[in-house]
């Protein structure tokens, strides 16, 4: 068996070296961040010893955890709270998604210093709500008008946020001299040649949409965001409307690579034109409404996804609600509803089980205890992996 150091280095060997250093530093911060940034370890282990109960085939985002839910503005400009990362999305047994989410609850709550009994209670609540939602057979969604409790407050705040707040946080200068803030944390400078090539490419992409053709590009920067995706090519674009000088637009262009789950799954997958088509299509299957300007492109023979930039802060801060049992329960319950709804919404698409199979599966509660046991047990495995990684990292091996 390879060491954790060898497994992580092997998986990340094709990524950008400078960005990879940032990723290695960030996943050393705590066990939950390590779990987020090493999704491949989970599925490598699952492919070797799969003790999960059988479950219907479903479209899954592949890397579900408590921080892979967030708010975003849809093409209809309404704000939604939903699953929001589909880079690893693939057709797989439904419980692969649920097992990873359940494990994340145990690991995240431990990192937040929430007692183990509360973690077990919330994991159980997630599974019971997920099952009940499947059993009803109706996909639901969460927007400000239907949200309750902390999610409602959260979405109301997000919906009321003005564009200038986002610009103030990410830019410097004024009006047509506005530029992206190069802080060497979220944004990094790129050379003039690459910037010119990216500018020409994105303006050609924008020209295909009559609503975007009136924008000009003011600046471009290399972007760092997330944890598991650090190391890929990712760019942020700042645009200004040609007639409406106070109207700006931020776009995120993110490289799309093959799903990290692909080597560990034997289930036949659709023949996608490219990886960007895979991610965009599955995201459209699973979400009630897609993020604004969701699309794809190919730049220098590399596939990318494009979408309107969403603030990274638009996620539930579990540190703030950790002591409020009512808020904590509401968030976990809503996440379970959204997970089940995504599977119901995408049911029957390109090999996924039909809704009736998911309804029947949701009516059977016998597997829930096994998933709880799996989540608790695997969280201890990740604790061991993290200690091994941290030891190697502190020795300078990464």
Structure write-up:
The protein is α+β, with helices and mostly antiparallel strands and 398 residues long. It folds into two domains: 4-159 and 321-394, no CATH class; 163-308, Phosphorylase Kinase, domain 1 (2-Layer Sandwich). 45% of the residues lie in helices and 15% in strands. It is built from 14 helices and twelve strands. The protein has a six-stranded antiparallel sheet. The chain has a two-stranded antiparallel sheet with strand order 1-4. The longest helix is centred in the last third of the chain and has 27 residues, at 368-394. The chain is globular and about 60 Å long.
List the helices and strands and how they pair.
Blueprint: H1 4-11, H2 17-26, H3 31-37, H4 39-48, E1 57-60, E2 69-73, E3 79-83, E4 90-93, H5 94-111, H6 116-136, H7 149-159, H8 163-170, E5 171-172, E6 179-180, E7 187-188, H9 192-206, E8 215-223, E9 234-241, E10 248-255, H10 275-286, E11 295-299, E12 302-308, H11 318-321, H12 325-345, H13 355-363, H14 368-394
Antiparallel strand pairs: 1-4, 2-3, 5-6, 7-8, 8-9, 9-10, 10-12, 11-12
